Amino acid sequence: MAQMPGWSSRDAASANVVRKNVLELYGLVRKYALLQGVEYAFIEDGKGEVIAHTLGTFPPELKETVSPEGRLHMQRRALRLEGKMVYETSVPILGGQVGAAHLGMQGDFVEREIRGAILPIIGIIAVILFAGIVISSVLVWVMTRPIRRLRNVADSMSKGDLDTPVILGIGSHDEIGDLARSLERMRSSLKAAMSRVSDG
């Protein structure tokens, strides 16, 4: 939700609220009402009386009874004003001692801003997920390629091809290299056995 630029406990409005300088306060709230997405702005004094606002007739739904303790902290609320959703933020002036400043943001504007911030994040997450799936698939394909080749050699051996040596993975010192060496020993043993059978 939008912050009220310049409306803080050290706000310029505090002196005007203390002096009840209504013209200056109306000028200040009108300045904030011109900001994009702002529905209204108003200032209330320490007793909760509205002393400046940007609305023609002050709507009763905006009049909220806030305890003096409640005016000491920034507050937010969502409400319907003339059928439209409005998000209001109130900020204490001089720590809530002299009143509070209220700014109502159009619900559509706030939701558009939130969507505008969230959609790129969702897009980035989708791209990262897609890239992760692609990279994982490539890694799985690369890692299983030697196993597929050894399977093809074993299939050839099962069909009687004992002349083609198993050279794939023999130099590696991992499990695939161990499997390739075992397969080559088995091929050599079978070839020797077949030679003895055919000689005898």
Considering the chains and any ligands shown, give keywords for the structure.
4 helices; disordered N terminus; five-stranded antiparallel beta sheet; 200 residues; alpha+beta
Description:
This protein is α+β, with helices and mostly antiparallel strands. It has helices at residues 13-19, 22-33, 107-158, 175-199, and strands at residues 38-45, 50-53, 75-81, 84-93, 99-106.
Q: In terms of per-residue confidence, which ranges show pLDDT below 50 for 5 or more consecutive residues? A: 1-11
Number of helices: 4
What are the secondary-structure elements, in order, as H or E? Answer: HHEEEEEHH
State the separation between the terminal residues, measured CA to CA. Answer: 92 Å
Give the overall form: rod-shaped
> Major β-sheet, in short?
5 strands, antiparallel
| Portion in helices | 40-55%
* Helix and strand composition category: alpha+beta
Radius of gyration: 39 Å
- Residue-averaged pLDDT, rounded? 81
Count of extended strands: 5
Query: In percent, how much strand structure appears in the residues?
Result: 15-25%
